UniProtKB/TrEMBL annotation:
Family of the protein in this entry: Belongs to the UDP-glycosyltransferase family.
One matching Pfam family: UDPGT
Keywords per UniProt: Glycosyltransferase, Isoprene biosynthesis, Transferase
Gene Ontology terms: biological process: saponin biosynthetic process; terpene biosynthetic process
Protein name (Swiss-Prot/TrEMBL): Glycosyltransferase
EC number: 2.4.1.-
GO MF terms, alphabetically ordered: quercetin 3-O-glucosyltransferase activity; quercetin 7-O-glucosyltransferase activity
Top-rank taxon: Eukaryota
């Protein structure tokens, strides 16, 4: 183990960087050397917000996305599609050069772990005779849906995209997943469909080419074991939950404040002291992740629902300006609006009673490990899949219905808040399920638990 040098390759987004960082920390804790490679822009933003440092962990870049952005800034194009096109076209050569440089400097890479949307990394690894693993940062159920679509032996759409809104997926021991429940980019009318589908298809095909295909999944056995181990030909290692405070002791989540990556502007608001002043399980926490930008009309619906709930709330609105705070006219007795917070610290705080969330997988796992019920407001990608799991499989939350315009309206949000924060039977069952899931997450992550054992098995590869 001491001789191993892992290269972790991640896209430059918070939801990809965070689990990669946490895996890096775990690997170094077991004596490995780890180099975390991301793009130039991501590394700069991490550096600007105090990059976490530990022995054995190094940072590097595999792609200069700032140069690509500058070259195309005057051209009207699909920015996201162009970025992925540039990555696929230029990334392999640049990654090969990085691997060569590391080897020439006396630190050859012995294992590559690549994150979501980077299937070409596995091809580079194979060409250079380096074993690799795919770090899947979404749920095992999301992986199973993707695999059901694109695997070569019975995939529904292994070689074509001719499917519509009548598509459905049936997985072992799970309810039917309709078009509403599957990752949105799989649907033909989704704006990201044309370039995302080929990437996910390539992920599956790349794994099929490898006789020793290996997938690390940010989940744990007790949560999704049935679906994960029903997929043939792939060796799965459920190693979750992976996030910035994955230190568990005696059935409690202890925050590791010394480690964690933040690509956003840090808040100067004293939100933890504000939480300290509130009663147990009384605060509504609201956050829609690091990518989603809410429309003003949606913000207004949320604000009115929070006000009328007559419960204290902590709401994260990225890059909020002072004039916006003034417009909302929020006093700290009613609620607190901040541009950023340490989400796991907030979720694990005794005062937090529920989580109004977009239900990205990182947020879903963080709510599970903290025992906090969820009020789900999914927007895109696999968030609808996660909400279905939360409501129908895990039972630790409830989904807010949208209106015909796709807006989560005040009445629906308030109704769900009253259920989850109230004392009626349905809300109590949700709260009980949330605490049961927390115990299972803690058990999986602690020494001797399923995720701990799976990591040890991965180290031996």
């Amino acid at each position: 183990m001491n001789a191993k040098h892992f290269l972790l390759v991640s896209l430059p987004t918070q939801s990809h960087i965070n689990p990669s960082l946490q895996l890096a920390k775990i690997l170094t804790d077991h004596g490995a050397q780890v180099s975390l490679a991301t793009t130039t822009s991501a590394l700069r933003r991490l550096n600007n917000n105090t990059l976490p440092t530990i022995d054995g962990l190094f940072y590097t870049t595999f792609f200069d996305d700032e140069q690509i952005s500058n070259e195309s800034k005057d051209v009207k194009t699909n920015v996201v599609a162009d970025a992925f096109s540039a990555l696929k076209r230029l990334g392999p050569q640049k990654l090969s050069k990085l691997l060569q440089n590391l080897s020439e400097n006396g630190s050859p890479v012995s294992f590559i772990v690549y994150s979501l949307l980077l299937p070409w990394v596995a091809e580079v690894a194979r060409e250079m005779h380096i074993p690799s693993a795919f770090l899947f940062i979404q749920s095992a159920i999301s992986f199973a849906i993707i695999h059901r679509f694109f695997n070569s032996y019975d995939g529904l759409h292994a070689n074509n995209d001719n499917f519509g809104h009548d598509v459905s997926i049936k997985l072992p021991k799970l309810p039917l997943f309709t078009a509403h429940d599957i990752p949105s980019f799989l649907l033909p009318d989704n704006e990201y469909h044309s370039f995302m589908v080929p990437i996910y298809r390539e992920h599956i095909q790349t794994l099929e080419k490898d006789p020793n295909s290996c997938v690390l999944v940010n989940t744990f056995d007790a949560l999704e074991k049935d679906v994960m181990y029903s997929i043939p030909g792939i060796k799965f290692f459920p190693v979750g939950p992976l996030f910035s405070s994955s230190i568990f002791n005696k059935n409690e989540l202890n925050i590791d404040k010394s480690f964690g990556g933040n690509m956003a502007r840090c808040s100067t608001d004293n939100y933890l002291n504000w939480l300290d002043s509130k009663q147990d399980r009384s605060v509504i926490y609201v956050s829609f992740g690091s990518i989603i930008v809410l429309k003003e009309s949606q913000k207004e619906e949320i604000l009115q629902a929070l006000r009328e709930s007559k419960r204290p709330f902590l709401w994260v609105i990225r890059d909020i300006k002072d004039e916006e705070r003034e417009k909302y006219c929020i006093s700290e007795e009613i609620g607190l609006i901040v541009p950023w917070c340490s989400q796991v610290e907030v979720l694990s705080h005794r005062a937090t009673g529920c989580f109004v969330s977009h239900c990205g997988w990182n947020s879903t796992l963080e709510s599970i490990a903290s025992g906090v019920p969820v009020v789900g407001c999914p927007t895109f990608s696999e968030q609808n899949t996660n909400v279905k799991m939360i409501e129908e499989l895990f039972g630790n939350g409830i989904s807010v219905n949208k209106n015909e315009e796709g807006v989560f309206v005040k009445q629906e949000i308030k109704k769900c808040l009253n259920i989850v924060m109230g004392s009626e039977e349905k809300g109590n069952v949700i709260k009980e399920n949330a605490m049961k899931l927390k115990s299972l997450a803690v058990e999986a992550a602690e020494e001797g638990g399923s995720s701990h054992k799976n990591l040890l098995s991965f180290f031996k590869m």
